[in-house]
What we know:
The chain is of the alpha/beta class. It has a single domain, classed as TIM Barrel, CATH 3.20.20. The protein is 35% helix and 11% strand. The protein has twelve helices and eight strands. The strands form two sheets. A five-stranded parallel sheet has the order 4-5-6-7-8. Strand 7, helix 10 and strand 8 form a beta-alpha-beta unit. The chain binds zinc ion. Zinc ion (ZN) binds next to strand 1.
Amino acid sequence: MARYECAVDVAALDAVDAHVHVEKDHAGHHSLPTEVIEAAARYFRAPTERPSVDETAAYYRERATAAVVFTVDATTQLGHPPNSVDDLVAGAAANADVLIPFGSVDPRRPDALDEARRQLDDLGVRGMKFHPTLQGFDPSDERWFPLYELVEAAGMPALFHTGQTGIGAGMPGGHGLRLGLSNPVLLDVVAAAFPRLTVIMAHPSVPWQDEAIAVATHKGNAYIDLSGWSPKYFPEALVRQANGPLQDKVLFGSDYPLLTPDRWRRDVAELGLKDDVLPKILKENAVRVLGLAGTSAGTSAGTSTGRGRA
Ligand SMILES: [Zn+2]
């Protein structure tokens, strides 16, 4: 079993993409059932083919960009197991100069705590990804607090999908997926109960942008990743906050392969962000939030400090 050890050289990086999906493993298994992949591809007008973990690494290496990679285990809700997390982490370990793997466990699995512990302790994942709508759970329910406790104790961030989703879009009943579970105000409860847990709210939280801004403003441990939408379509309030009060709390993310980092970066140039703000969004905030500065290749002396989180 390959344990991930981060080998990202922060100084050599142009950017950090905080939100990248790897949804296919080496056995060819996809994270989502075929009919859901096809519906999502129609919604995003994107190809159904998913790049492998190695292809993803090569793509990001070419761009001198590190990528946080993950899948989503929504076994209970979908009746479909995800692509292998072990395979994803092994791929990230083999490409540790550019990939940063997050784990994923379906909170509704009876063995969720053991599996989260295994991913954090044995596989060395650098955070956990949750998708309340896809996984069908209310993140503010105290039932899931033991899971957050584990992630907090490991000193790792928890990233939650927020806002609407293309998954299930246009399908009868949206494939049974409930949008309200991804209202970011539910994460206010998590951030309040776990003040040492870094909570990253993924995406412009359409149609709850004001809620996400309120949580990120009030909770020192809450952040926003800007993935999933071209910056062209960002709500005005989000742009104003990113360029001002929340400039230290927003992270570049694409949602690759559904949106490419090239497109995102081309379009962000049109937002008129201040010169000193863009470098924070593209790299500096992520280095701090993900604890990358303390990784072995990230220190100038080249010494390993293990998990570098302060
Ligand atoms: Zn995503």
